Hints:
Elements: H1 2-15, H2 21-24, E1 27-29, E2 38-42, H3 51-65, E3 69-73, H4 77-85, E4 91-93, H5 96-101, E5 106-114, E6 119-120, E7 122-127, E8 142-145, H6 151-162, H7 168-171, E9 174-177, H8 181-190, E10 195-199, H9 200-209, H10 211-214, E11 217-222, E12 226-227, E13 231-234, E14 240-242, E15 254-256, E16 265-270
Parallel strand pairs: 2-3, 2-4, 8-9, 8-10
Antiparallel strand pairs: 1-14, 4-13, 5-13, 5-16, 6-12, 7-10, 7-11, 15-16
Amino acid sequence: MRAARARLKQVSRRRVLAGGLATATLAMPTLARAARPVLFGLTPVFLDSDIQLIADLERYLSRQIARPVQLVKRRTYQEITSLLVANQLDAAWICGFPFVQNREQLRLVAVPLYQRAPLYRAYIVTRAGRESQTIHSLRGDIHAFSDPDSNSGFLATRSLLAGLRESPSTFFARTFFTFGHRNVIRAVASGLAHSGSVDGYVWDVMREIEPALVSGTRIQHISEPMGFPPVAAARGGPRLAKRHRCGPDQHAGRSEWPGDPRHVATGWLCRG
């Protein structure tokens, strides 16, 4: 158990699931700098089951911006997005779908670099050992989605089915939301669902930190590259000050995540 926790902390600290989350908060509100902590929202896409990881992340972020940081987590994407739009968070790491939906109320702060590009893919996964070759073979499945506001955990599969003149309700026997990409993997691996829609980078990272769980699934379908989930702030909130220009490496506005370049997460592209 101790060894597993140490491995989880080592991988998670360097990747922070999407890489260098701390460097994204290069820019934080200039108002009331000493009066209150920076409120940074996290959706359920973040692997937050490890309490120590969350504490480590808060400390790291605080050191980077020289201010206390409080991470705010909620069960659904909608809850975090609503707090952000209402200017009750200074910034949040959200999904691309709600960012587009609320484009008039939100502005871009940073975009993570995944494998050195601001892109990722959505996966459809099935139980390991299942003989299925195409998306058509999943017809009639019980299918697990992550969240109604998740791009990779819902919208990507819905779009794929629309191209087949289908919808989730007509193609699958039943669908349900797990409200977490890790929960989608668990549902499929345990047999609660026949297949599921999940963030590709979540599946990739979990394959390293929870190999026993992920080995119960396999990738059935990989989407085209999509824009990585962004860090956003409310348009009506204070402008963000570029204290660190996104992090220690300031070349051309790019922040490189310190550490082994082979790591999945390599930094952020940032905007003030």
